[in-house]
């Protein structure tokens, strides 16, 4: 059995990073926004910050442009204490950006600016330089797989992790507009599942990853992009588990999460109801909380409960990475509402 106790990093996160411009005009339609606040974003980046704030020693492998936006992200991560020395600058490519509207309770439009973006240029050499064998968990997101060279580099990273006993956590992170055809998302996701220990996703993301039957595959690009991906999520989860992961963590919004095991067991991890201000970033906060519990050997239900508490805090905030809770903050929040057990 691999001894993880001597490893330097609790968690290593690979994938996208961006400057996130959040509307300051909460409730206003997108076309009426007058100003934005600048934060740091990108799913693996958000999770790395959330993990660090909880107390884990986290590191990030991302690509940044040789530009002021890259400087902005790097400075924030250094200030947070996330290890950035394995992230790389990509000359000729721009650091990505996202512009986001906030119209609670259920409308949160966002626009990605990822043409020629730096983080999708992560390659196998970047992975070879990363401390996968010196980390307890290697986490990546589905958007990593949308284009080369990031796709093969991420798969290679998961292969290394499997060889050296580093657990792999895959956040499905379905962003249909980042794929030439969202149906290809499922093809690539399924090809990665044999390298993964834990899968995290919503019902729509899980179904998108398992677009396998003829009726679903006949959906057009726009139908998959613009509507929810319908299907029996339990069947999709069984398919995922048959491909290798030991558990699927299904995020179910205000209800919390469900832990699905290979043997068919399902454990409910109830959520912490709060008034929603902004749902963007809540899933990444969940990922950070879950990984904290996972690294510390908690049972998966309790780890998911901590993830739920982190997510509940972030949905009451304005942004993502900048508002991740500390361990003391989230435990105080949870204990005021009956605790994690």
Write the layout of secondary structure elements.
Elements: E1 9-14, E2 18-23, E3 36-41, H1 43-54, E4 58-61, E5 63-64, H2 68-80, E6 88-89, E7 96-100, E8 110-113, H3 124-128, E9 135-141, H4 150-164, E10 167-171, H5 182-192, E11 198-202, H6 203-209, H7 214-217, H8 221-226, H9 233-242, E12 247-251, E13 256-261, E14 266-270, H10 282-295, H11 300-314, H12 327-335
Parallel strand pairs: 1-4, 1-9, 2-7, 5-6, 9-10, 10-11, 11-12
Antiparallel strand pairs: 2-3, 7-8, 12-13, 13-14
Helix pairs in contact: 1-10, 10-11, 11-12
Detailed description of the structure:
By secondary structure, the chain is an alpha/beta fold. The chain has a single domain, classed as UDP-N-acetylmuramoyl-L-alanine:D-glutamate ligase, CATH 3.40.1190.20. It is 35% helix and 20% strand. The protein contains 12 helices and 14 strands. The chain has helices at residues 43-54, 68-80, 124-128, 150-164, 182-192, 203-209, 214-217, 221-226, 233-242, 282-295, 300-314, 327-335; strands at residues 9-14, 18-23, 36-41, 58-61, 63-64, 88-89, 96-100, 110-113, 135-141, 167-171, 198-202, 247-251, 256-261, 266-270. The protein has an 8-stranded mixed beta sheet, sandwiched between helices. Strands 3-2-7-8 form a 4-stranded mixed beta sheet. It has a two-stranded parallel ribbon with strand order 5-6. Strand 5, helix 2 (68-80) and strand 6 form a beta-alpha-beta unit.
